[in-house]
Design goal:
By secondary structure, the protein is α/β, with parallel strands linked by helices. It has five helices and five strands; from the N terminus they run H-E-H-H-E-E-E-H-E-H. The protein is elongated and about 90 Å long. About 15% of the residues are buried.
């Protein structure tokens, strides 16, 4: 098979309908648009218009609230960090930061910071520099001899 021999499977494409080309074509005169009215004219924009009736998007009440100041954190458990240290992807002697976690492949991309969660076990003495941490995560890290550095505001929450 050659590139110039490639073609679509039979029936994969339809030929364009030529409308308004005489009565014998079956699509003459009004070209399949019916008779008169807004939708028979060009430039029709009737999405959401219900003929003067109050449209559904105005009949229904407004709901919800999107906080413009909300933050999206990467979440990682102490167990996953321990696995990465054991496999050699993460250096346990250096501080574990968001950059180190991205480099190790534990998180795909840095968002607004990393939040450390307490699931799993940690045996290594590791220091964390993260945006937030759960109480159980801090307890587990400190029990293993490590430390967790969290900004003042995040610690208060």
């Amino acid at each position: 098979m050659k590139l110039n021999e490639l073609r679509d499977v039979d029936g994969a494409t339809h030929s364009r309908k030529r409308v308004g080309r005489g009565i014998g074509s079956g699509k003459g005169k009004t070209s399949g648009r019916g008779v008169k009215g807004q939708s028979s004219r060009s430039g029709v924009a009737i999405n959401g218009f219900e003929g003067g009736q109050m449209p559904i998007y105005r009949r229904l009440p407004k709901r919800g609230f999107k906080n413009p100041f909300s933050k999206s954190f990467n979440e990682i458990s102490v167990g996953k960090v321990q696995e990465a240290i054991d496999s050699g992807r993460l250096d346990g002697k250096k501080a574990v930061t968001i950059e180190a976690l991205v480099e190790a492949g534990l998180i795909r991309r840095a968002r607004d910071g990393v939040r450390l969660l307490g699931s799993g076990e940690i045996k290594s003495k590791v220091s964390f520099d993260v945006a937030g941490a759960s109480k159980s995560a801090i307890e587990k890290v400190e029990k293993a001899g490590g430390s967790v550095k969290v900004p003042e505001k995040a610690a208060a929450e």
